Amino acid sequence: MARIIIKKGHDIHMSGVPAKNIESASHPTTVAYQPEEFRYTKPKLLVKEGDSVKIGTPLFFDKCMPDVKWASIGGGKISAIHYGYRKVIEKIIIELDKNEEAVENTAFDHHEISILSKTQVTDHLLAAGMWPMIRQRPYNKIANPEDTPHSIFISCYNSAPLAVDLDVALRNRSSSFQAGITALSKLTQGNVNVVVDETYTSNTFLDIKDAETHMISGPHPAGNVGIQIHHIDPLKPGKVVWTVNAQHVVTIGRLFLKGVFDPSLIISVGGSGVKNPTHLKSRLGASMETLTADRLQDGSQRMISGDVLTGKTSDKNDFVHFYESTVSVIPHSDKRAFLGMLHPGSGKSHYSLTNTYFSFGANSFPFSTLLNGEERAMMPINSWENVFPMNILPNQLYRAILANDVEEMEQLGLIECDEEDFALCSFACPSKIDVGSVIRQGLDILEEEE
Asked: For residue 170, what is the DSSP state?
């Protein structure tokens, strides 16, 4: 067991932190997949509008890896399939039946799971359409079932602002979580690394078998799985590590124990644009309208599927993305204060990482969409380095990507990176540079070179 202390980073204290309790969300009438979020895949439909499906019915597969299918996250009827430019599938909407049926798979007890082979576990996940829950680093894409990863990582600590509290979401789910861990342990000859916050209280993380448990502490991005991989089992060329979201481990465990795909999910709804922010018992692909109904403050609000650093802008007609379990809402604003740069600052008007304003250290801050400026010339004053806890030079890496220098990108460690690990650099950047999007640009270049 390792104890990791992250010193570089920053906890963004936003107002509207979800309460540490779980409420029931309104029952959704529709759920949806958004295939574009699955990187480097070429989806091919297995259904058409009007088809009836059960929970677990295959909806589409990846033409690059035909064995990888996506199971339906709802039982009912395919009510709409939305296409984008060049017939790219943007959205598959399922209208739910009142009494949803589910595809039944083979169920196992804990002992039977412990004696399964890698091939049996892989085939079971592929047949159930749940393989997309497993992603690989580098590139943060869906894992290739023919690979054997050096290790598997599960981050049980969300340090991003307003993110779902996994200590709350996984409470009293030790049986399913353990079953998922045991199944995943069959897929690697290395360790299954479970990383938890050292202040955890959930009984789910006690006495985990078939895994190595690590403790972590420190500011965001300590909870990012990429940071944890960097400190425990760093990537290098030719090495592959797999990652699984903590709540998806529970879903995998339930598949093996009960033989069905259970799409239930705990989702946090928070931000200064929300009344009574909390955690909701909902499901994969839930509609934003269902999750935010009667919860929004008055005025114009921006809804985000995910946390405010890495999520995607949404509206009430959108759906929560497959890998997200957070809905963030902040007021929409484009009105800048007159002579704002000369204002001495207060806990309500300014937020600063550098003690420029007196608001530094405030307990919470009512963030809005206001950027207080636009992208401008780069200022290399260590603003990125001060919040980036990896042994990588972000400034030099950024320049190498812009110069399209593949060899230098690799030498500077791009293979270890993902854009979410640089999101805090974008937040801290005085030049308003979206560093994460450039990192993804570099990863796309490297992936294409393979």
From this structure: T
With b for 16 or more beta-carbon neighbours within 10 A and e for fewer, the 201-232 pattern comes to ebebbeebebbbbbbbebbbbbbbbbbbbbbb
Mean pLDDT, range 262-275, rounded to an integer: 96
Residue 24: how many CB atoms within 10 A of its CB? 8
Handedness of CA 56, 104, 181, 237 (dihedral sign): negative
242 contacts 187 by C-beta, under 8 angstroms: yes
Instruction: Please state the rounded mean pLDDT for residues 333-346.
Output: 60
Q: What residues contact residue 238 under an 8 Å CB cut-off, 6+ apart?
A: none
Query: Where do the domains of the chain lie?
Result: 1-25+103-333, 26-96, 335-367, 385-449
Residue 136 C-alpha from the chain's centroid? 13
Asked if residues 179 and 211 have their Cβ atoms less than 8 Å apart, the reply is no
CB atoms within 10 A of CB 285: 23
pLDDT digits (tens, 9 = 90+) for 104-127: 999 999 999 999 999 999 999 999
d(CA 174, CA 90): 36
Over its C-alpha atoms, the chain yields an Rg (Å, rounded) of 22
Dihedral sign, Cα of residue 130, residue 135, residue 140, residue 146: negative
CATH number assigned to the domain covering 26-96 = 2.40.50
Q: What pTM value is reported for the model?
A: 0.94
> Has residue 360 got a pLDDT over 50?
no
Residue 154 bridge partners (DSSP): 194
CA dihedral 388, 442, 148, 158 (to 10 degrees): 30
CA dist., res. 282 & res. 264, Å (int): 6
